[in-house]
Amino acid sequence: MKNADPALASARGATPMVVYHALRALIVRGQLAPGSRIVETEVAARLRVSRTPVRGALQRLAHEGYIVDSVSLQQSRPTVAPLTREDALELFSIVGEIEGLAARSASSLPVAQREALVRELTSINARFERASRARVPKHDLIYELDEQFHRRYVERAAGPRLRALHDAVKPQAERYERLYVSLLSRDLAPSVQEHSAIIAAIASADPDTAQRAVQVNWRNAAARLGQVITNVGERGQW
Amino acid sequence: MKNADPALASARGATPMVVYHALRALIVRGQLAPGSRIVETEVAARLRVSRTPVRGALQRLAHEGYIVDSVSLQQSRPTVAPLTREDALELFSIVGEIEGLAARSASSLPVAQREALVRELTSINARFERASRARVPKHDLIYELDEQFHRRYVERAAGPRLRALHDAVKPQAERYERLYVSLLSRDLAPSVQEHSAIIAAIASADPDTAQRAVQVNWRNAAARLGQVITNVGERGQW
DNA sequence: GCGTACAAAACTGTATACAATTTTCCTGGA
DNA sequence: TCCAGGAAAATTGTATACAGTTTTGTACGC
Question: Which chain C positions come under 7 Å from a protein C-beta?
Answer without folding.
Answer: 10-17, 19-23
